[in-house]
Amino acid sequence: MKSARILMALFLTMPLAVPANAEQNFVEQFLNRYRPANVNLPASPSALSGQDLADLIRSGQIQLSVGDVISLMLQNNLDVGVNRLTPRSSEYLVETLYRPFEPTLRLQATINRNTSPATSQLTGAPALSTLGGAYAVGFSQTLAAGTNVGVDFVVNRNSSNSAFNTFNPSWIGTLRYSFNQHLMRDFGRSNNTRPIRIAQNNQKISESQFERQLIDLVAQGQRTYWDLVFTAEDIKVKQRSMDLAQKTLSDNRIQVDIGTMAPIDLVQAESEVANRNEDLVVSTYTQAQTEDQVKKLITARGDPGLVLAKLNPTQGARRPDPSDVLPVEQAIKVALENRPEMRQLQLDLENKNIDLEYTKNQLLPSVDLIGSYTQNGVGGTETLRAGFGPTAPIVSVTRGGLGDTFSQLFGYDFTGYSVGLSVQIPLRNRAAQGDNARATTDKRIAENRVTAQAQQIALEVRNALTQVDMNKARIETAEKARELAERRLEAEQKKFDLGASTIRFVLEEQRNVAQAQTNQIQALVNYAKALVDMDRAMGMTLKKNNIEIEKTLSASLAK
Q1: I want to staple 162 with a disulfide (CB 3.0 to 4.6 A). Which of 54, 124, 369, 463 is the partner?
Q2: CA dihedral defined by 328, 329, 331, 337, rounded to 10 degrees?
């Protein structure tokens, strides 16, 4: 009794010894568990500052390199902003699967009062009136090893007007420790944490999918940039061709004026000027469309056309270098190590292995070890009589209460225990066998997908390297064709000046030179785009552009 009072006093005074700020922090942290989560999400691209894009504007033009396009795209592109959320959603899904292993505290209080007429002299009163209360506190948790543990403390208080009650009011307390351990089916961490491990792999798969989407977007941005480079250079070619045609027309007019050329020959020169002007107009509008495509990639505005500044690419297509490509075998090896699709399929195969091991465990019977330990105590006002019945003289009255109950509970004088074994044996087990067969089949499918994807990657790498080699060869042939076209034009112009040719052949050779120059630019741009496709096929797009997937996922978190 005395020890119980001392413990109760310590319990009541303990909060007084805790600093006020520490107690407040503890309460705040505790209450935060039951409030909506403070989710840190990447800010939407529209919420980001457009200052980076504005900083590149010079005299109404935006000076862009490939690196600028990629950097602006990572900050502002709407597709990147949307795709970045999926891995974070998968991360939060993993947290929800820890729910079965979270400890639970149960509190319950019940009060009842009842009056009923006596039906027997043993009732102890003409009309039985009772007042009762049940108070329970329980704790339970499921462990990853397949163990269920619980602690339940129950106190019942009862009082009545019956003269037969020895304790009135009475306090009856029970403290029960229990556990249940799976021994065969659902035994061990690997079986009970199966959904969590699969979800963790799915989170990594989601990150790999984001990486693949980012690779495609970056490659698209690079290809679109080189299209912009081509249109800018092609306009220069078309403008030079237009200027040359106009100069030829002007020279011919002078010859007509002095009588060395027939006026009819001017029609052909005028027609050529009109045709080349049309080519220039088409190239100009093609450039505008390509600029809109680039603006869509680098801005979050609903209408990319609202970015009125003209885009000016600062990088030109370079000539091939021997270090641009790797040997085929080495390139395929690099691709198999870096392609996110291979990591996705490997993680999926790991999930299938987890599922297969789980279904094997589910074939076993259910065998559970059950045990409990109980402590009991009773207290209250105890009335002892010299005999039986309400009229028997009272010998003594001992005033007691809840403290006596605690003294008996933790005096370990009234205890009990139980140990048992529960076995459930399925007599058919058809469902578990079917699930195991399904898991075995799914694993084989996943293995075949890994092999098929490796084959597809090898083919893509070979095709990408072939495209690089082909466009490298086209650069050489295009340069040679341009040189020959320029020489033919020079020869034809000399013949025309000597009167041995006509203006029609001169204009035709001028057009051939312009087309050869366009073809050379196109060959250089196609080579640059082929290198982009090769990096994509090898899974090296992000590494070569110094993009870290972890930083991209966590970039610009909303505070």
Answers
A1: 124
A2: 160
> Do 341 and 255 reside in the same domain of the chain?
yes
Closest alpha carbon to 364 in 323, 423, 301, 404: 423
Rg (CA), the chain: 43
Strand partners, 104: 140
SS3 string of 176-221?
A: EEEEEEECCCCCCHHHHCHHHHHHHHHHHHHHHHHHHHHHHHHHHH
Going by C-beta distance under 8 Å and a sequence separation of 6 or more, which residues neighbour residue 210? Answer: 83, 84, 86, 87, 549, 553
Buried b (16+ CB within 10 A) or exposed e, 192-214: bbbbbbbbbbbbbbbbbbbbbbb
Q: What is the DSSP letter of 284?
A: H
3-state secondary structure of 42: strand
pLDDT digits (tens, 9 = 90+) for 438-483: 999 999 999 999 999 999 999 999 999 999 999 999 999 999 999 9
Q: Do 450 and 420 reside in the same domain of the chain?
A: no
User: Of 377, 404, 424, which one is at a domain's C-terminal end?
Assistant: 424
Whether residue 314 is found in the same domain as residue 405: no
d(CA 396, CA 540): 92
Tokens representing residue 8 in the block: 């109760």
Mean of all residue pLDDT scores within the chain: 86
pLDDT, tens digit, for every residue of 295-338? 888 887 666 666 678 888 998 888 999 889 999 999 999 999 99
Range in 53-67, 487-501, 545-559 the model is least confident about: 545-559
> Which among 394, 270, 330, 404 has a CA at the least distance from the CA of 1?
404
The domain total for the chain is 2
Distance of CA 443 to the CA centre of its chain: 24
Question: Which amino acid would we find at residue 469?
Answer: D
Give the number of other CB atoms < 10 A from CB of residue 243. 11
Region of residue 40 (phi > 0: left; psi between -120 and 50: alpha; otherwise: beta): beta
The CA–CA distances, whole Å, from 535 to 245, 315, 528 equal 42, 19, 11
CATH number at residue 451: 1.20.1600.10
Has residue 54 been placed in a domain? no
Write out the residue range of the structural domain in which residue 255 sits.
194-355+434-553
Q: How many Cα atoms are found within 13 Å in the side-chain-facing hemisphere of 239?
A: 7
**Contact 183/416 with Cβ under 8 angstroms?**
no
Quote the CA–CA distance of 113 and 290 in Å, as a whole number: 84
Say if 241 falls within a structural domain.
yes
